[in-house]
Amino acid sequence: MNRKLTQIKQTMSKTKITVNSNGSLKVEGDFEIADKTGALYDLGGREIISICRCGLSKNKPFCDGSHKGHFEHDAVAFSLPPKK
Ligand code: FES
C-alpha cells in the first residue's frame, strides 16, 4: 500500500459498534444518529453512546440501564452467510 493511502486510512474516522452481552449496542467514533425523517439527535457532544436493543429503555433509542437483569443475550461474533 502506498504511503499516502496509508496516511489517508489512518486519518479517516471510523465507527465501532460493540454488541454488549445482556445489554446495549455501544457506538463510538465518528457517527451521527438520525430519526426516520433524517433529523439528527443532539448528542450533547457525546462521542460514545449506548443504543437500547432490549426494548425496555424509557429513553429510546438510547439505553437507560433498564436492561439490567431483564435481558439476556450472550454476544459472540459470527459470520453471516454471503449476501444474495
Ligand atoms: S439495552 Fe439498555 S435499556 Fe435496553
Structural class, from helix and strand content? alpha+beta
Assembly classification: single chain
Low-confidence runs of at least 5 consecutive residues? none
Shape: extended
Output the radius of gyration.
Answer: 16 Å
Bound molecules: FE2/S2 (inorganic) cluster
Share of helix, binned: 10-25%
Biggest sheet character: 3 strands, antiparallel
Strand order of the largest sheet: 1-2-3
Number of separate helices: 1
Give the arrangement of secondary structure elements.
Elements: H1 3-11, E1 15-19, E2 25-29, E3 48-51
Antiparallel strand pairs: 1-2, 2-3
This protein binds FE2/S2 (inorganic) cluster.
In brief:
This protein has about 80 residues and is of the alpha+beta class. It has one helix spanning about 5-10, and strands at about 15-20, 25-30, 50. The site of FE2/S2 (inorganic) cluster has 12 residues, from loops.
Description of the molecule:
- By secondary structure, this protein is α+β, with helices and mostly antiparallel strands.
- The chain has one domain.
- It is 11% helix and 17% strand.
- The model has no long low-confidence stretch (mean pLDDT 92).
- Bound molecules: FE2/S2 (inorganic) cluster (FES).
Describe this protein with a few key phrases.
alpha+beta, single chain, binds FE2/S2 (inorganic) cluster, about 80 residues, extended
